[in-house]
Structure formats: C-alpha cells, structure tokens
Amino acid sequence: MFDKNILTFNPGWDRSSNTLPDFDDVRDIQRKLKSRGLVPEPAADETSTGPASLMLLDPDGNPVLIDQHVPSPSSKE
Fold first, then answer.
1. What's the confidence (pLDDT) of residue 24?
2. Which domains does the chain have, with CATH numbers?
3. How many Å apart are CA 19 and CA 33, to the nearest integer?
4. How far apart are the first and last CA of the chain?
5. pTM of the model
6. What pLDDT score does 77 carry?
7. Is 20 helix (H, G, I), strand (E, B) or coil?
8. CA distances to 42, 53, 60 from 67, in Å
9. Cα–Cα distance between 68 and 25 in angstroms, integer?
10. Which run of H or E residues covers position 68?
11. Dist CA 35 CA 8 (whole Å)
12. Which regions of the chain are under pLDDT 70?
C-alpha cells in the first residue's frame, strides 16, 4: 500500500483521539523546524488556526507526517 514507512504525529490528540486542552500547534512546530533549516513539503498554512499538517522526509526518505485534526489551542479563547 505504501512504498515507505510513515511515522505520524497528531498534535492535540491523546492516544484515544481525545482532544488535549493544551498542546504545541502544528504551525509552531513548523516554525521551529524551519528555524533549524528543515523544509516541510507540503507545509502547513501558518495564517490558519484550524486543522493542518506538514510532512518531512527522514534521512532514509521515509515520510514523517505531523497531522493536526483540531484547532490551535490559542484559537479557543
């Protein structure tokens, strides 16, 4: 089904897909990665606050997906 192994992280969810009250938003994670020279492809829209995702490739070419399904915790004020 997939050519490579995929490692997926879901910010904002616990292991049972329950929404966490506080977590690192995917856009904040992306800014940290970019500041360290990593380029996500595709990248999350940093102007949004809803669900978003980004993908990187590990050194072996395996995709690492950071896939947030819930709004940013800062947008729930």
1. 97
2. 7-75 (3.30.720)
3. 24
4. 41
5. 0.88
6. 46
7. coil
8. 11, 4, 20
9. 8
10. strand 63-68
11. 21
12. 1, 76-77
